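Narrative summary of target 7.
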Amino acid sequence: MAKTILDGVAQLHFVPSIADPSAPTLTEIQGGVDLSGFLRPGGDWSPIEGSTVDAATIDSAFNSTARGTYGGQPFSAVFTNDDTPGGDVAWNTLPRGTTGYFVVSFYGGSGPDGALAVGDIVNVYAIDVYTMKRSPYARNELAVFTVEAAVTEPPHEDVEIVSS
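Modeled conformation, tokenized:
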């Protein structure tokens, strides 16, 4: 079994609209913005966690639990700022109040030069950006900012990209 790292493989795309998030089309994804080249390590771009509920009863010494709700955590990502005034791609793509979809590929793409292609597996998150915060100034550090977005519907995980 081969091991992998996300560096040079994973991709993050912002797509303004997807007709069926359980079957995103390659055309829809290509019509979005590939933010992979701006994405920094850090953040949480697989944010859906679950909860448990105390299900213990007095007739047992075991503290059993049951599955509870899931979700409610923000999608968080750290991006670099461009050095061109007005040309800051990630910053301009994700202003506060932006809604759409983050399409995440943890496995890269099977197309030319690693581009996403029909049949590739992705996760699709419906998002609503509520924070875009520049990091404090620090010497010898890249200018970066953090985006946090509400995940507004259940995610579509491990779905296949379909043709248009």
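The chain has a mean pLDDT of 92.
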